[in-house]
Amino acid sequence: MIGKKEKLLIPDHIYVPKHEIISKEEAEKVLEKYHTKPTEMPLIYVSDPAIRHLGVKPGDMMKITRKSPTAGESIYYRYVVEE
After folding, report:
1. pLDDT by residue (tens digit) across 22-60?
2. 23: helix, coil or strand?
3. At a CB cut-off of 8 Å and minimum separation 6, what does 42 contact?
């Protein structure tokens, strides 16, 4: 049980994949690779518990690295938006 002063750190949980902000240059490469626009990417809210500690801003792009039993690792990208 978590006390009043203790906080559960969502990003530290074993089932939460690694989230990282990618540079504008890397985001442009991702958009070119998939022939898409930022607004056509899957979205993630700036208030999402898994990323809010990173200091994200709307317009940032997140790289999410998930462990996969079949592929080893899979990478997903999400565009950060306001709620």
Report:
1. 999 999 999 999 999 998 999 999 999 889 889 999 999
2. coil
3. 76, 77, 78, 79
Strand 43-45 and strand 61-68: the pairing is: unpaired
Count how many residues are written for the chain: 83
| Strand ranges of the sheet holding 18-22, from the earlier edge strand across to the other edge | 18-22, 61-68, 72-81, 43-45
Task: State the average pLDDT over residues 59-77.
Answer: 93
Reported pTM: 0.80
Inside any domain, residue 2: no
4 domain residue, yes or no: no
**3 domain residue, yes or no:** no
